[in-house]
Amino acid sequence: MFGLVVKFTLKDEESAGGFDALVGETLPKIREAEPGTLVYAVHRVEGKPLERIFYELYADRAAFDAHEEQPHVKRFLDARGAFLASTEVDFLDLQDHKGVTG
């Protein structure tokens, strides 16, 4: 399995609304079109209204690469910058787990 965590910090409350709407448009397409995307979880951060955390888990690196090539993901990647103050990405090396199996 292949995973990552992304922390988005949004510019302001208006940007947060726009970003959340963009996520709301994108996530159903990920569910429908990406069998190799095992988990795509979007979180608000308690007490930090301008932060969002994404946890993404893919069957393998090829599934992640396929995700990045989807038209709906490319649209999200192109549009998200208008809402963001910063982005941090950490790629994960899964050591052990309980739950989703690949």
TrEMBL record:
SUPFAM superfamilies xrefs: Dimeric alpha+beta barrel
All residue ranges annotated as the ABM domain in the record: 2-92
Keyword flag Oxidoreductase: yes
One GO MF term attached to the UniProt entry: monooxygenase activity
One Pfam family linked to the record: ABM
Keywords: Monooxygenase, Oxidoreductase
Name the record gives this protein: Quinol monooxygenase YgiN
Species for this entry: Spinactinospora alkalitolerans
